[in-house]
Amino acid sequence: MSEFSGLVRRHAKIVMVGLAGLGMALTSAFAANNACDGIKVEVTKARKQEYAPLVVSAMTNKFKPAQAKFFTIMESGTWSAAYVSTPVSDDGVMFFQTVDGKKQFRDVWGGYAEPSEKPELVSWAKKLGAPQDLAKCFAEEVTERR
């Protein structure tokens, strides 16, 4: 009977660890879905028209604004980030800050990132001066978009 009881306890521990892991995975998935809550992320015609010339002006190699393809445009307070593809560069996220009513280019992030790199991405964006909510949304967008 003692051997049976030990086996039951061991299986119960395995089940509990498994359930705890599942709970953490579900919590992470739920948190990921909310990373952009409160951030404007819609790519509307008006927003494309506003951001396309900004993207062109920030680039060394010029192209027509209509050639900029936006995946998302994120805005929080005076900061914004446009995830964009152009004919003269790799896809990237261009960060802008509104100063005296005008959006000014701050920096661009390009490349590929794994979900495990989200903390580093958030830190990078915050060092630019981007607010926490925009930094988190940016990290989510570049690691989850495939």
Account of the 3D structure:
This protein has 146 residues and is α+β, with helices and mostly antiparallel strands. 48% of the residues lie in helices and 25% in strands. The protein has four helices and four strands, in the order ααββββαα. The chain has a four-stranded antiparallel β-sheet with strand order 1-2-3-4, with helices on both faces. β3 and β4 form a beta hairpin. About 12% of the residues have low confidence.
Strand order of the largest sheet: 1-2-3-4
Q: Kindly, what is the distance between the CA atoms of the first and last residues, rounded to a whole number of angstroms?
A: 54 Å
Helix content: 40-55%
> Uncertain runs with pLDDT below 50, 5 residues or more?
15-32
User: What is the ordering of alpha helices and beta strands?
Assistant: HHEEEEHH
Q: Number of DSSP strands?
A: 4
Task: Give the key terms.
4-stranded antiparallel sheet; single chain; 146 residues; 4 helices; alpha+beta
